[in-house]
Amino acid sequence: MRVAYVINSLEGGGASKPVPAIAGQLRSQGCDVRILALTPRDRRGLAAIEQAGFPVSIREGGEKDHFAALRWLDRQVLAWQPDLIWTSLSRATLLGQIVGQLHNIDVVSWQHAAYLKPANAFLLRLRQQRSLLWVADSNEVATWACRKLGISEDRMAVWPLFCADDHAPQAAPWQPGKALRLGSLGRLHKVKGYDVLIAALAQLRAGGFTEPAPVEIEIAGDGELREELMARASAAGVDQLRFIGFTEPRAFLASLHLYIQPSRSEGLCIAAHEAMQAGLPVLASAVGELPYSIVEAQTGRLVPPDDPDALAKALAELLADPGRLAGMGAASRRRVLDRFGGAAFARAGSAVLERIHRARPEPHRHPRSVLRFHR
Q: What domains does the chain contain, in order, with CATH numbers?
């Protein structure tokens, strides 16, 4: 089966990050996979895809020129004649559905997060029947998508987007006399809740909390709110917080002692699971799949989203006894390897492919495009 895997961009992190693992599982089941990126953005996700051996076609366009992107995708599909279009995120899904409908090609669509812009939610709900099968990155997102988009349960599958690697670099335990290193990975976007983290850190400072060791906090990621968040931290006197931009995730996580995920909304949240894989305890908002992955008192702490008071309280509790962080991190690693190891990832992927084959028993014949603008 030829699979055209359509993604919005090659941005480092986000939905492009698990593409090599997902495409690799499809390939292991006999699929011939090509990646089609609608826009390059920062291209930081490209190297991993190419290293995994997948051909990539990149449209050198922007994020708003939807008609031009549709024409490009139409030409790519006509040239290769895939048996299946596999889409990820709203823009890729909507354009993939249109091209699939025009060429009589089935579409399978990912839903990665329990949040959509209102316009995208309206359009996806209107066109949700155009996807043969929907795949959610977690049970929480599957339930949300069925309710929000009107997808029937028999057309929804779950395939967690994280494949844990037991060879990933491990964080070293904190040593007395050394700085305590805290960190987070993510886009500098409102949904990630870094303004909530700044407010919580400001509360600790104002409340006279005495840290048992010097604390260093780094946020690795870029985004539209960088300047605003830096100004907010400066105004609040939170001088131990640094925004370090995009960095190599595994080395960054292995340098920490505690991971913080203060998000307002998440799906599976790959970054938090990568932190657990690195042997870190996780302090996170109770959103998406995180309440099912983090066991309080064993692997980390959960707090309500958008609640700086609760976040400050939990952070103070963890920092008051840093010697126990390593034990919690070891429990985190055991849990994530058990729930999201390679065998579990392969089983979930095989089950999704089996459902696709059952839903489309006969090979499709692809007529020439009814569109004229592809010439």
A: 2-163+341-359 (3.40.50.2000), 180-339 (3.40.50.2000)
